Each structure stands twice: as structure tokens, then as C-alpha cells.
């Protein structure tokens, strides 16, 4: 196990921090893998305890969340991240092995977002020698189910954020390194149809095709999301379809999972309400519409912009140019910024290929982000 003592002291992080990212990546943590989630929680609990953190482990049916409080002055700065990845176990050995090539570091989950967790860790390590009065109190929330919409941890996030002065998310930044201030809302919706099985040739009139019903319902979904009366365009992706078993049987069951993205809360509410009102098209069919997860649209506020300006000022003192703008993707920061807590996201290192086989981050950017977070968490001298 790599320990914090293996990372050299000094104002400039060494490349030994890459060993920390590697150790996290080597623990493959697909969403819903509770054993892997517990293993990475063990490692991170020890690491963050080593930088003065008081660690609370919160196991649940999808994994283990961590809430870590680090002493300092003032209301805590909330740092938000996740330990799960989109990659199934075995990706590391089969499709996307760990690799270092100059400034580029590759591995499943390295960019999204295990390198971001190391940014938090290393910034706090560098602040250990600073008196408490000269560094901000910090609360870290690392959840185990973000990549599937935070169905368990999401409803707990507001309580975990209670009393925080602001929130910083450690998802990947824009490709040019700009932070994310404002995000589209997202929802995952499942439409399940129950029909009636019958022989497709000998007795078709007694069957009710769940697949035919589902197809008709998906056409209605397309009409709903394309409504010209909506305040802004809605993105819709039918990502999963299942149903039926044999071509000579009228299928009794079919279902689809749909991903939706919203620019504004009004469009979000109208679309989700319309989906809940869907009714069967054909007699004998039954329909169930369930919202599996939802993150509200987060439109940047003046308070978010002020937080970005303070981060940019800290970056300027380091010779870094820090910008920010809205992002298309959703994340847990939607749940915070959308509720009025001053929030920015995208504090992870630059890179690319999130959720793709060319996932990578830039070693140099990791160093830059650690220095920037350290500056943000330092209380300015009087």
C-alpha cells in the first residue's frame, strides 16, 4: 500500500502522487459493487485520517459513502466527489490498462474521478503544517453511487452539506480546464409495460404485445420532449430496452430506460409530469412509469459567480488563469447549486475520455489543481 509518507514534502507535489492515483485505479469500483466500494473506502479512510480527517463510513445497499471532516476555521468548504466508476470489473486488465506516457496518465476511472480525490488529499496534506486559524475547515463527501444518478446518496447530500459555506465538485473540467458553473438537470426514467402472452401464430388475437405498446409509448415520449412550447430544448436518449423471449410468442413484458437532460427547471417539471401521465394505448396493456433518479437543473447564480471569482483570484496569484461556464452534463453539484449553495464543479485535472476507452488525465494539471485548492483553502493574512 502506498502511504502518505511515500510522498515527498515540499511546496511542489512530486510525481509520487501518481502512485496514489494508481492505487485507487487498481481497485476497480463499478457502481453497485459493494465489496469493491468497501475496499476503496478502507484505503481512503486511512489516507484522509492521516491528514487530520475525522472519517464517517456510511454503508448502504449500493456501496460505502464517506463523510470526512477536517478542522480549520469558519464554516466548512464542502468538497464533493465519488468513488464509483462506469467501468465493469476486468476493464483494467482487458481494455484500459494503467499506463503513463509523459504527461498523459490512463486508466479506468483515473480521470472520472479518482485523480480528483487525490487533489483533495494532497492539498490537505500540504495544509497540515499551517495553523488552524490560517486554513479553512473542510468537509469531504465521497459517494458510492454517483455514476448511476446517486439514488441513495443524493437524498442525503443536502443534510451532509448543512452548514457549509460553499461547495466544490471534483468532476472533470471543461476540455480547456475551465470550471463548471451551472449544469443541466438530468433524470433517468423507466417505462415498464405488461401485456399478455399468446402464441404469435395460433392465438395472436388473445395476446397483448408489450413490445408494440412500448414502441408506441416511446413515440409519445419523443413528442413530449419535442414540444415547441417548452422553454428550452430537452435532450432524450433511450439507453436501454429489453423485452420478449421468442419470436413465436406475443411478448408479455417490455421496458425501456430513458436519460433526459434539461436546461431549466420549468422544462424539467413539465416533461416529467407529462411522462407520469402516460396511459396505455391498447386495451389490456398496463403501464408503469418510474423516475429512477433526478438531479435538478442548476442555473448559475450571483453567489456561484462570486465563488468562481474568488477561486480565479487565488489562481491568478499562482500564475493560473481560471475561468468557468455552464456544462451540459449533470452531477451531484446540481443538488447543491440548484438549492442555492454557492457551488462550482470541474475541479478535477484536465484530460479527456470520460466513460470512453481513451480515458486519461494530465499529470501537470493534477499538480496545478493541488496548488490551486491549497490556495483556496488558505485563509488570507490580515
Which keywords apply here?
alpha+beta; 6-stranded mixed beta sheet; 4-stranded antiparallel beta sheet; 31% helix; disordered N terminus
Total strands: the figure is: 18
- Measured as a percent range, the helix fraction is 25-40%
Distance between the termini: 41 Å
Strand/helix succession: HHEEEHEEHEHEEEEHEEEHEHEHEEEH
Task: Give Rg in angstroms.
Answer: 23 Å
Any idea what the shape is? Answer: elongated
Strand order of the largest sheet: 1-2-6-3-7-16
Mean pLDDT: 94
Q: Give unreliable regions as ranges.
A: 1-14
Count of alpha and pi helical runs: 10
As a percent range, the share of strand residues is 25-35%
* Largest sheet data: 6 strands, mixed
The oligomeric status of these chains comes to: single chain
**Class based on secondary structure composition and strand pairing:** alpha+beta
How would you characterize this protein structure?
With 382 residues, the protein is α+β, with helices and mostly antiparallel strands. It is 31% helix and 27% strand. It has a 6-stranded mixed beta sheet. Strands 4-5-18-17 form a 4-stranded antiparallel beta sheet. A 4-stranded antiparallel beta sheet has the order 11-13-9-14. The radius of gyration is 23 Å and the shape is elongated. The two termini are 41 Å apart. Residues 1-14 have low confidence and may be disordered.
What is this structure's SSE topology?
Elements: H1 17-26, H2 34-49, E1 54-60, E2 63-70, E3 73-82, H3 91-94, E4 99-101, E5 104-106, H4 110-127, E6 136-143, H5 154-160, E7 166-169, E8 179-183, E9 185-194, E10 198-199, H6 210-225, E11 235-243, E12 249-250, E13 253-262, H7 265-276, E14 286-295, H8 302-317, E15 324-327, H9 333-337, E16 343-344, E17 351-352, E18 360-362, H10 363-376
Parallel strand pairs: 3-6, 3-7, 7-16, 8-15
Antiparallel strand pairs: 1-2, 2-6, 4-5, 5-18, 9-13, 9-14, 10-12, 11-13, 17-18
Amino acid at each position: 500500500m502506498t502511504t502518505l509518507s511515500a510522498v515527498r514534502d515540499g511546496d511542489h507535489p512530486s510525481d509520487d502522487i501518481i502512485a496514489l492515483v494508481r492505487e485507487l485505479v487498481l481497485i476497480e469500483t463499478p457502481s453497485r459493487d459493494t465489496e469493491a466500494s468497501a475496499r476503496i473506502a478502507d484505503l481512503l479512510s486511512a489516507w484522509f485520517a492521516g491528514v487530520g480527517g475525522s472519517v464517517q463510513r456510511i454503508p448502504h445497499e449500493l456501496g460505502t459513502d464517506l463523510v470526512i471532516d477536517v478542522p480549520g476555521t469558519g464554516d466548512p468548504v464542502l468538497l464533493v466527489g465519488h468513488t464509483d466508476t462506469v467501468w465493469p470489473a476486468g476493464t483494467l486488465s482487458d481494455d484500459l490498462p494503467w499506463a503513463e506516457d509523459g504527461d498523459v496518465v490512463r486508466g479506468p476511472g483515473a480521470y472520472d474521478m479518482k485523480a480528483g480525490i487525490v487533489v483533495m488529499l494532497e492539498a490537505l496534506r500540504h495544509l497540515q503544517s499551517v495553523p488552524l486559524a490560517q486554513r479553512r475547515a473542510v468537509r469531504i463527501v465521497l459517494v458510492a453511487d454517483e455514476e448511476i444518478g446517486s439514488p441513495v446518496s443524493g437524498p442525503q447530500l443536502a443534510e451532509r452539506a448543512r452548514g457549509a459555506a460553499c461547495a466544490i465538485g471534483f468532476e472533470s473540467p471543461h476540455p480547456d480546464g475551465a470550471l463548471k458553473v451551472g449544469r443541466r438537470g438530468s433524470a433517468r426514467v423507466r417505462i415498464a409495460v405488461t401485456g399478455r402472452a399468446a402464441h404469435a401464430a395460433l392465438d395472436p388475437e388473445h395476446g397483448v404485445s408489450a413490445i408494440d405498446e412500448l414502441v408506441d409509448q416511446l413515440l409519445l415520449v419523443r413528442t413530449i420532449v419535442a414540444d415547441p412550447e417548452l422553454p428550452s430544448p430537452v435532450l432524450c436518449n433511450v439507453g436501454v430496452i429489453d423485452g420478449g423471449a421468442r419470436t413465436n410468442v406475443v411478448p408479455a413484458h417490455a421496458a425501456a430506460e430513458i436519460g433526459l437532460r434539461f436546461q431549466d427547471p420549468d422544462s424539467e417539471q413539465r416533461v416529467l409530469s407529462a411522462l407520469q401521465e402516460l396511459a396505455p394505448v391498447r386495451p389490456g396493456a398496463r403501464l408503469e412509469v418510474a423516475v429512477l433518479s433526478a438531479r435538478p437543473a442548476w442555473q448559475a447564480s450571483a453567489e456561484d459567480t462570486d465563488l468562481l471569482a474568488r477561486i480565479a483570484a487565488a489562481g491568478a496569484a499562482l500564475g493560473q488563469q481560471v475561468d468557468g461556464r455552464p456544462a451540459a452534463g449533470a452531477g451531484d453539484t446540481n443538488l447543491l447549486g440548484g438549492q442555492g449553495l454557492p457551488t462550482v464543479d470541474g475541479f478535477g485535472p484536465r484530460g479527456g475520455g470520460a466513460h470512453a476507452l481513451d480515458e486519461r488525465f494530465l499529470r501537470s494539471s493534477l499538480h496545478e489543481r493541488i496548488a490551486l485548492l491549497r490556495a483556496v483553502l488558505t485563509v488570507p493574512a490580515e
